[in-house]
Structure prediction request, 338 residues.
Amino acid sequence: MSQWIGTANYGFAAYAMEELRRLFNDIKFTQLSANEIFRMELTLGREEVLSALSDNEPMFLRHIQPVDRTLPIHGNADDLQALSELVRHARLRCEGRTTAVHLRRADSTPFLYSAADTKAVIDAVLTEMGCEPTMQAPELILSIYAGRTELCIGWGTPEEQLSDWPGGAVRFQREDGQISRAKFKLLEAEREFKLDFAGFRQALDIGAAPGGWTHLLLERGLKVTSVDPAELHPSLSSYPRLTYLKKNASDVEFKHGTFDLLVCDMSWSPMQMSKLVLEQITALAEGATAIITVKLMHKKPLQTIRDVIARLSESFELKKAKQLFHNRDEITLYLIKR
Prediction:
């Protein structure tokens, strides 16, 4: 038996739960936060669940936290004291390991303490235990969910929890002069898929306007060819490594094998986007990487995703499909040209 708290992007929890039902035969769900956070109970043990998730990670499951222990919430100072004692006496193998404390609070929780206050107290306990408290790149995470009646506490590695951010909510700082928030999607894709865009040479950005993804790739040092009938942001004209083609993607042709990276964040129908990407397949070098968003415009997103992946599989191998935190009504695909 094991219990977990799962988190999806708002509005997509039902799809995460559907994927989990297909993965696990005997699973029960309890809603914690409408359309986003849910608790689940399985007959399988912790290691069996983690192994299954590692082999078949759901697209819509953004974060998962084991519920190793629970504590009732009384709404007073005793709550933080009880949490400290639980951590102090838990079999938490964190000696010498960098350890982060992540607290998430339900809107209606009576737990009085903020994430910062809770972290300060629990960090002191972890230090006593020989752990090394940290906020970035932890080796171990102590996750706490403060619900309406109880604290749910669990620990695991970032890989086991699918993220090293609380609830998988990856945050980036907005920069002065940033062209669009779309840049955050590509930054998160780079993290999620363990890529380093600086290692690529030439990129093709289809449907590039206003240029958020183009800007990031130029910052990474790539030569970028951006295609869109709409205007790019004027600030991009200062980059000599940018080639801008003010055309529809279906009207351009390139020398075979020119690009080792293709990106596409086009707000078109999924199948039309797939068609345009496949039309440029000869322009990609063998083994080229593609990062593509699929807009979920219809009532059956899982079927839409299956149809797009089947179409793109003519020329690409799918490495991973994931709804990132910075995705909205879409998912992101990571593909390699066959």
